[in-house]
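cron nightly-structures :: item 1 of 1
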Amino acid sequence: MHNWFECKISYERVNEDGFQKKVAEPYLVDALSFTEAEARIIEEMRPYISSEFMVLDIKRARYYETFLNETGDKYYKVKVMLTLPDEKTGTEKRSSVQILAQATSVLDAIGVIDNGMKGTLVDYEIAAITETPLMNVFPYHPKT
């Protein structure tokens, strides 16, 4: 189970015209706490940013599942309606969850979700897809 935190960092980047511009970009980090999320985003971003940078904001991101696809260059928040049996009443219950899909387009995101949900026995319906401003996602990988 992942604990996702959206971390927004601010730094100065050199544009194509040679001028520096201050930017704020969101990233998603898998961590156990806010403190660990801050430490992880600093560790992950340090090799890529030569100037000083600052963590502006950290907030919990509630994703039921993440389907990361290395060929995708965008991240989509997908609202999925699950149909689950209610064992107490014997009826079907619908609930919505948020899934993060890495894809190249909305159509590709639908394919990523369908492929990721292929092995489940749960009926689902994609209710909404929104492109997120996320620049990158850093899942937790234990160091060996």
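cron nightly-structures :: done
The CA atoms of residues 128 and 140 lie 27 Å apart.
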